[in-house]
Amino acid sequence: MHHWKRSLALPVTLVAIALGFLISLQAQTQKNVSAAEQISAERMGQMKSVLSNSQAQNAKLQEEHRVLLDQLDAARKKVGTDPQLIDQLKQLQILDGTQAVAGPGIQISIDDRNKNVLFPLGTDDIARMINTLKFAGAEAISINGQRIVATTAIVLSGSSTILVNQVPISRAEGIPYELDAIGDQDTLLDYYSKLEAPGLKKYGMTVSIVKKALSIPSYKGAYTFKQAKPIIP
User: Which of 15, 187, 205, 221 is the most buried (most CB within 10 A)?
Assistant: First the structure.
């Protein structure tokens, strides 16, 4: 009898140890699950907080936009129909690019995709061409539909995408780039054909320049000044 009890003692002890281990493991697992659920809940709470803040900020910006539109409308009504003030306003809008314009000028088409091109058109090339047109007296300039203004940035995104005004400039089929400039046609043509076209052709690009009546769109971005303030005399 005692021999039978002794023979069962070891298995019972092992079972008890295994059972205790399983209970401990289950408790730890439950603890881990609870911790994970708590972390998930905290993250969800953080995401909801961020979303709520973004929505509040968006609502605030929309309200500021509405107030500014009301102020602009009030200012326009105050100005009335004074032809001199209206003309000054139009001139300022043309200057800052927020007014679409039309007039005589030149249209430049540049194809840099044929097999003879050594180096495709880059951001420096575009910036240089725009500066040449400005120096020649261009009154309004656009490239692939993007109006060139004082704040325009021309940068490379990735390996080949060029951004103008933070917008990728699309390439029309067969004509990668189309540069429009309004101004004195003869002067613009003379400057571009002598200072820019020869270099582009040297690198294998196809360049064509035509005089024509152009329509140049307005700048679609927004002017935001956080640091610059007007000096009040």
Answer: 205
Cα 215 from Cα 198, distance rounded (Å): 27
Nearest alpha-carbon partner for 140 in 90, 97, 87, 88? 97
pLDDT digits (tens, 9 = 90+) for 41-78: 666 666 666 666 666 776 776 777 677 777 767 766 66
**Is beta strand 206-216 parallel, antiparallel or unpaired with respect to 177-182?**
unpaired
Residues 151 and 110 placed together within one structural domain of the fold: yes
Q: Which two tokens stand for residue 214?
A: 């152009």
Q: Which domain, by its residues, includes 187?
A: 101-216
C-alpha–C-alpha distance, residues 225 and 233, integer Å: 20
Which residues make Cβ contacts (< 8 Å) with residue 146, sequence separation at least 6?
152, 164, 165, 167, 169
Q: How confident is the model at residue 187 (pLDDT cuts 50, 70, 90)?
A: very high
State the CB neighbour count (10 A cutoff) for residue 149: 18
Same domain, 48 and 117: no
